What does this fold into?
Amino acid sequence: MRFGVALDLHAPATHAHEVAWQNLRDQALKAEEVGLDLVVVPDHLAYRAGGDGDYAIQEQPVGARESFTVAAALAATTTTIDIGHSMVNAPYRTPAMLAHLAATVADVAGGRYSLGIGVGNSFDYDQLGVAADRRVARFEECVEIVEGMLTTGSVDVNGEHWSASRAELVLRPNPDCRPPIVVAAGGPRTMRTAVRFGDSWNGWCPSDPASTVPTDLVRLLSHTCEQLGRDPLGIGRTFDLGVDPLDLAGKRNLSLEVLARLAELGADEVRCYPASAETHANRMEAIVALADLAREV
It folds into this structure.
């Protein structure tokens, strides 16, 4: 089972230095040095003060570094570790431009980049002028266009929400550098999209060894594969998971239990969100501790 770490790109303006490029670079290099397999970055714009979203705080707005810019810079800086997203917010960009961005990062990474796509959260859509209705339908069309362009170099899709009229990705990646598409899915419709177009599937796993969520998700994945005639072993299984490698919340052993359970379920990859204080120094410590945690699984 591969282990990855999610780098935090979020900060209020008063703490922007904590997500400065130099810190993000050092965190990725540290993850590479200690033997982790993957770093992933989130894809958000901004959280209003006191608003919705996991990273919102009461006192002031929270921003985020732009994920494709960071992913490309990390790919250019590192040499062995894989780079990815968890997850690209599908409505933020037109599908053809999303494929274009992914192809460019794949070229920079030289085969070390994977494109994760999710339905996304709508708390900041009005800031981007993005419609928040029928998110799953928009997601389905987006993934179809992106997969077609990255795989064949062209699509001609006239969807209800997204269209790409004779769109061409002339400089698409060589087959050996084509970025795997990781599709986030937690329900029947999004799971069908993952099975139809994804190289891998991704689901969120609660940090609770007693939770049935991962088992239920794997069961839904297998059932959907059977419905659509795809070999369930032919699609990768990835999970996102909050962990406590530094035992800051006294839950390190629980993290080990959940990770062992995911290994039993046949997970190919786990992207870990380490519990840590909101400083670069503590995040560096958490990356080292995460590598130690991974070796115990």
